[in-house]
């Protein structure tokens, strides 16, 4: 499948930063950002946010690397439960310095502060361009525009970075290496928790050439946050996604039919499993719907580091987990590159990309 065009014929859409600056002091948003005009989004947004003091599970990363068998066994059980019950968890004691996370957030903030014409140098034209910035999700197909600007960069197996602002490339390279170490260890733990060999995912998904992608998101203050949406309910492609943010909340996870506000422990990393783990586990572990809401006071910056298979790797349920009678394959095999192209070239719509490869079961 050829890379999908982002449509060169459409007029350039203003960044949400430019829109928010123009709206400063006003009390309403442009109609094109009002998600309540789109019925399929409204229905989902009608679900209430849980008022209970619920929190996503916590995984102590230092125990994943522990030489103590009992400690490791316990955290593998915790990881299995977090993947099965929530699909999200907070990672503590991960070894990524707080100063490094702060520097990465500041570098992304500096990118979004660049003049519009300078950011447009990195606009990109296709969903698989190694550097791509823009607004909303995919303006060529979005029915409603989302209150979000983004910068997406492929960091591995080949490192890319914008040439502006200064030191961005240097900071991103160091950060990507440290975060990749965390992701690899989590994936080893997930392999073990599924009853697979420790390095099963590593080998089957060719992680040596696996795709590491940074998606930096900017959500400026919004005059009518109850009408706008940063990102709609969706699941993520990839295996495991690690996220940091600038201390401003906005991430919500769907759990047992309600939306849960994610309030991370300071200096922790938020982790979630992606669609390819759901496929590989044959549905035992499920990628989970989440969304980004906005507020009328503070700018939120989040940085999601997605770790996936090699682009040419074919993702399918692990044969070791299948049984022709009790656990037949629930998903068709698909090359990871094709899955990304399919999801990213359409409107962001829940878990629709995963549903398209789900096999009918009797």
TrEMBL record:
Entry annotated with the keyword Transmembrane helix: no
Keyword line: Dioxygenase, Iron, Metal-binding, Oxidoreductase
Pfam families xrefs: 2OG-FeII_Oxy (PF03171), DIOX_N (PF14226)
GO MF annotation: an example: dioxygenase activity
Residue span(s) of domain Fe2OG dioxygenase: 209-309
Similarity-based family: Belongs to the iron/ascorbate-dependent oxidoreductase family.
Record PANTHER family: OXOGLUTARATE/IRON-DEPENDENT DIOXYGENASE
Protein name: Oxoglutarate/iron-dependent dioxygenase
Lineage: Eukaryota, Viridiplantae, Streptophyta, Embryophyta, Tracheophyta
